[in-house]
């Protein structure tokens, strides 16, 4: 029989060999055993019932949750000249009648039906009048309440099956089954544990990436520019977001379509076809798009927002690379997306236990974004707890070449702060207490009296939050489920608290790491560059004669749209303003308008001091320095100038190295200075990191550098 199956594989489908798992599942079905097959998306589940259907007498029934999915499969079977049809609500009465009568005559090898069909006595009668060797449950996780896509109509088929007067073999197929779900499917469909076939969840051709704290739109534009003519899907979490992103990317000239439940059927159909037939490159969609779309050459799937759980994520991301070619899956993480998912959970009519479960799953999705474990490994182990960790070698964790540094002391501070706060608060408040924030709520709760208050004063709040999230992901801390989760310390933290175990984390300890970070809007830069080229061509001069790159870059940082603001840009004096000011202001205004930039976040540079016409004017680092000397805090400068705090510190250091004065006592005291100098005696000043380590990580890089400056050691 198996040889025959292999011949059919070649004859009808044109494939030379079975994929992992297919042979075993087909063989088991041919031996008339109920079977559960768990194969990843794109693993080739359809063939697992299509081939047996050709070998059995009679008509195989396939239960499938979506109309589009049935149609696609029937279409492709028809091109392979395998007689197949479907029965669902998209047919009119006449069509339905015709198909039913052909089914009765045994004209089809496969009939696809929606689960609701089994509620019709007429349909059951029809099935009882023909021979049915096999019933296939495609997307079988829909049968389980534990699954992420539970459909009650799937479950009620089970009782309808008892009304059948023959005893077909049952095969259930799914890509995403946790142990709970698999157990549920087996007990409902009378499948023995030994008849479960699982090829593992790994998708070797997918590279997973998580990216945090970036401007998502900028990222996407840059990403898409690098992937011209490639098929990809961008998932967003709401219709509105899909609409916005669609307009934005279309205006940028990308070839896109959009898909969500708010569009009418004709619009959705058109979008889907454009995508499937490669008429457009990028599909921007909500999670309404995708199930049943068998497009094999999707090269990337980007998630613009956090999905609700790992099952949903893996299914959506798994639509990349069904053809086995290398493909990418990116998740753009923003902490505010967690709130949206919580809101969606609250909106549902789920009972308490189910809701807690959803919160729990959401938590595990968030942990995916914070883990340092290989991302493919994290997903596999999510579905299969027994699976040993792997290293895929191409995800953003595996590719993260930052060194692990010891954070034991920091971790101890976090654990003990959590304990002292009574293990009753969330991540943000914990971080604020450690940071020593002066917030009213913290004083009201008396947390400013805790011994752990302000212990991590020198760190940014974001850095503390990142570390707490990492400790959560690593299991030292746990977050309770529910709407208002609180952080607790687990037993894994005890040896760390006792000082017998250390904690390591990949971090950016070096200031230099951020050196390449861009501060200006690159898209706008592109626009202004083109504009400059046009002007230069008109005047037959090289572009830099009009404005230098650094001038354009400043424009892309400050968005000057008034004469006064423009005149404060380095390289723009009265003469040049008179010639080019207006065109550039117009281009920048247009850009602000097109991108709906908030004026609030657009900051004017500080007034230039004593500048002369077209001279090299106040450089960026001196501007920072000026603000700092005017009493603006580092955080505030960073926020206002849209720089990282590290860049701000570098600006100040550079200004001081160039001879600007600084009030040292505001930055360090004598004792600290002495400590740093002692450490310098030991390790020199070639590299900062060993110095920082020699000081047990207790003294900020900024302080170390200012001490070096003060003593003129460089
Ligand atoms: P799933 O339902 O598991 O997500 P499909 O059944 O839709 O996957 O199959 C995905 C793709 O893999 C299809 O294009 C299919 O034709 C192809 N495929 C299936 N089996 C094989 C095989 N043995 N060899 C090569 N390609 C295969
Ligand atoms: Mg399938």
Describe this structure in words.
- The chain is of the alpha/beta class and about 725 residues long.
- It folds into five domains: about 200 residues, P-loop containing nucleotide triphosphate hydrolases (Rossmann fold); about 180 residues, 3-Layer(aba) Sandwich (Rossmann fold); about 110 residues, Winged helix-like DNA-binding domain superfamily/Winged helix DNA-binding domain (Arc Repressor Mutant, subunit A); about 70 residues, DNA polymerase, domain 1 (Orthogonal Bundle); about 100 residues, Orthogonal Bundle (Arc Repressor Mutant, subunit A).
- Helices cover about 45% and strands about 10% of the residues.
- It has a seven-stranded parallel β-sheet with strand order 3-4-2-5-6-1-7, sandwiched between helices. Strands 8-13-12-9-11-10 form a six-stranded parallel β-sheet. A two-stranded antiparallel ribbon has the order 14-17.
- Helix 12 links the parallel strand 12 and strand 13.
- Helix 2 packs parallel to helix 3 and helix 16 crosses helix 17.
- The protein is globular and about 95 Å long.
- About 5% of the residues have low confidence.
- Adenosine-5'-diphosphate binds next to helix 3.
- It comes from Bacillus benzoevorans.
- It is an enzyme of class 5 (isomerase).
- One of its GO terms (cellular component) is replisome.
- Belongs to the helicase family. RecQ subfamily.
- Its cofactor is Mg(2+); Zn(2+).
